UniProtKB/TrEMBL annotation, chain A:
Keywords: Cell membrane, Membrane, Transmembrane, Transmembrane helix. Residues 278-388 form the ABC3 transporter permease C-terminal domain. Its main location: membrane. The lineage of its organism: Bacteria, Bacillati, Actinomycetota, Actinomycetes, Pseudonocardiales. The chain crosses the membrane at residues 21-42, 272-299, 319-344, 356-379. It is a multi-pass membrane protein. It is found in: Cell membrane. Belongs to the ABC-4 integral membrane protein family. This is ABC transport system permease protein. InterPro entries: ABC3_permease_C, MacB_PCD, Macrolide_Exporter_MacB. It comes from Lentzea atacamensis.
UniProtKB/TrEMBL annotation, chain B:
GO terms for molecular function: ATP binding. Residues 5-226 form the ABC transporter domain. CDD domains: ABC_MJ0796_LolCDE_FtsE (cd03255). SMART domains: AAA. InterPro entries: AAA+_ATPase, ABC_transporter-like_ATP-bd, ABC_transporter-like_CS, ABC_transpr_LolD-like, MacB-like_ATP-bd, P-loop_NTPase. Gene3D superfamilies: P-loop containing nucleotide triphosphate hydrolases. This is ABC transport system ATP-binding protein. The lineage of its organism: Bacteria, Bacillati, Actinomycetota, Actinomycetes, Pseudonocardiales. It comes from Lentzea atacamensis. The keyword Transport applies. Keywords: ATP-binding, Nucleotide-binding, Transport. The keyword ATP-binding applies.
């Protein structure tokens, strides 16, 4: 009964100054909403990274050259290395595609567009990376042998460079060298940190000829016969490459499976999420300090009222309760609105990432906002409760 | 039967050392049940300090204060608030109503802290407002009431808990003649109905309403005028 009455006093205190209460609430609203939203964005980024990596298949090994260590020489990965990986010594390797990749500027008509990944490889690469064709065709082994200037472009490149035009059959300039577009790949979607469709694939020979030169390959992408055969394939690849590169100590190349890639990328996005969440937590803290500030002002402004209440017999606990409830209501209300804002906000795509709500973050942010009211309101409230009645009444 | 107020050798000192101010220097006072007493004295004589201590708003530095036979000396803040709520009705010179709150809610306030149920609270507050002649102003806020009306709301608030004593610190100090007369009329009626009233005043005609007048000079009772 008494608690209800005291809560009613608190509500009256808050509604007496709607503007101030509203602005204080806004501080908590922004804090809670940003915690929920930024965690959702981080989570969305990591889940799309996981999806895109899983989409590549679970039977893939990626071999890339290791950076030169002091005191050891690094042999480049070559097309011959890639060819040697498929043979009777490696029964579990299905394909091995040599890959070079480079950033290139593409032009068509008046527009130009920087492609973040221009890849030179062989046709098996499409199968290995689960890349389907949406329009036109993929290039063939014959195109690789003849070093034809043909290219298959990703969905992003197609929309950027050929808006409203069918790109198939068109001639596109890549670093001022004309390539004929033979096909457009099916869209894979953004992986959060990078756009998987912002790419173009051309025959290895052509790419080396025209763009990268005949240095080391960027990668060799190996497809194992099955996911279960992956460890065997990895061992066979290691044996062959060690033999070819005459490795004695640390190898001059690195083999990554999709699992390892997934772990590495997940770790990155987790760091990213933690970073976002801590920024949001700081804004929640700032909102909490806002509550302390406003409650201190409120208490100072209402010292006389506190004196009056004490003079008619309000015990310390009821004054403490009244101001604590005021602070908690501010933060709970802000928290509830913040949850609503966060949940609504997470329905929109933010910076190319579709946020994925983490239910525990919603609960946590809301609980924290309630605690913030209690914690940051307790100092002003206890100051109000400790006032001596006569001092409070004399306060001007 | 014990007196409502019994004060023995009451002292109150503000500050310490050379700058200490002795507001009360060993004051004795007894108020019997049903009495109507006026306390007079020059400003700085300690009469307000005395009334604040009687109202349990302040605590004496030393001395004994028995309220309704209860020694308040060893009460803590929590028990004192209970005492203020149940035994004392305090009327201030500056009204001290809670702003932005209706007259009815202001009068109900002590009953809320007494833990009385809503329906009964409303009934008693309306009766108290009726007693001070404000039953038509129950839903007005303090800033919509005249000074005299505000003071009458304050008196209603002071007597709604049926306290043992009603203390009034210059209740007519901020009021014009007509409003003063109304307020004094209400206090007279309270006294007539058996309430114990102690008030502070500067004016002789206000003091004339009381049964006896206590003069406070330099923190002591200088004389009693019956």
């Amino acid at each position: 009964m008494r608690v209800v009455e005291i809560a009613a006093f608190a509500v009256r205190g808050l509604t007496a100054n709607k503007m101030r209460s509203g602005l204080t609430t806004l501080g908590i609203l922004i804090g809670v909403a940003s915690v929920i939203l930024l965690i959702a964005v981080g989570n969305g980024a990591s889940s799309s990274v996981q999806q895109s990596i899983a989409g590549l298949g679970t039977n893939i090994l990626t071999i890339s050259p290791q950076r030169a260590q002091p005191g050891s020489t690094v042999k480049p990965l070559t097309t011959a290395d890639a060819a040697a990986l498929v043979g009777p010594d490696s029964p579990d390797v299905k394909y091995a595609s040599p890959v070079v990749s480079v950033q290139a500027t593409a032009g068509f008509g008046g527009t130009s567009y920087p492609i973040s990944q221009f890849i030179g490889t062989d046709p098996r690469y499409f199968d290995t990376t689960n890349s389907g064709v949406a329009q036109g065709n993929l290039f063939s082994d014959n195109d690789v042998q003849q070093a034809r200037k043909v290219v298959v472009i990703g969905a992003t490149v197609a929309t950027q460079l050929f808006p409203g035009v069918d790109p198939v059959g068109k001639s596109m300039l890549v670093n001022n060298i004309p390539f004929t577009v033979v096909g457009v790949l099916a869209a894979k979607g953004s992986s959060g940190l990078q756009d998987a469709d912002d790419m173009a694939v051309a025959p290895l020979t052509t790419t080396q000829n025209a763009l990268t030169g005949y240095g080391s390959l960027t990668q060799i992408v190996v497809q194992a016969r099955s996911a279960d055969a992956l460890p065997n394939a990895s061992a066979q690849v290691t044996t062959i490459l060690n033999g070819r590169h005459k490795v004695t100590g640390t190898p001059d190349y690195r083999i990554l499976s999709q699992d390892q890639l997934l772990t590495a990328r997940t770790a990155t996005t987790e760091t990213f999420t933690v970073l976002l969440a801590s920024v949001a937590a700081i804004s929640l803290l700032v909102g909490g300090i806002g509550i302390t500030n406003i409650m201190l002002v409120t208490v100072t402004e209402r010292i006389r009222e506190i004196g009056i209440r004490k003079a008619v017999g309000a015990p310390r606990s009821s004054i403490l309760g009244q101001f604590l409830i005021e602070a908690t209501l501010l933060s709970l209300f802000g928290g509830a609105l913040g949850v609503a804002a966060g949940v609504i906000g997470s329905r929109f795509t933010i910076a190319g990432i579709q946020p994925v709500l983490v239910p525990s973050s919603v609960l946590l942010a809301f609980a924290v906002s309630a605690l913030i009211g209690l914690f940051f309101g307790s100092y002003p409230a206890s100051r109000a409760a400790k006032l001596r009645p006569i001092e409070a009444l004399r306060h001007e | 039967m014990s007196p409502v107020i019994e004060v023995r050798n009451l002292r109150k000192t503000y500050g310490s050392g050379d700058t200490a101010v002795h507001a009360l220097r060993g004051l004795d006072l007894t108020v019997e049940k049903g009495e109507y007493i006026a306390i007079m004295g020059a400003s700085g004589s300690g009469k307000s300090t005395l009334l604040n201590i009687l109202g349990c708003l302040d605590v004496p530095t030393s001395g004994k204060y028995l309220l309704d036979g209860i020694d308040t000396g060893d009460f803590d803040e929590e028990q004192l608030s209970l005492l203020r709520n149940r035994k004392i009705g305090f009327v201030f010179q500056s009204f001290n109503l809670v702003p932005r709150t209706t007259a009815l809610a202001n009068v109900e306030l002590p009953l809320v802290y007494a833990g009385i149920r809503r329906a009964q609270r409303r009934e008693r507050a309306l009766a108290a407002l009726d007693l001070v002649g404000l039953s038509d102003r129950t839903h007005h806020r303090p800033n919509e009431l005249s000074g005299g009306q505000q003071q009458r709301v304050a008196i209603a608030r002071a007597l709604v808990t049926s306290p043992a004593i009603v203390l009034a610190d210059e209740p007519t100090g901020n009021l014009d003649t007509d409003s003063s007369r109304e307020v004094l009329g209400i206090l007279d009626r309270l006294h007539a109905s058996g309430r114990t009233v102690v008030l502070i005043t500067h004016e002789d005609e206000v003091a004339a309403h009381a049964m006896r007048t206590v003069r406070v000079v330099d923190g002591r009772v200088a004389g009693v005028l019956v």
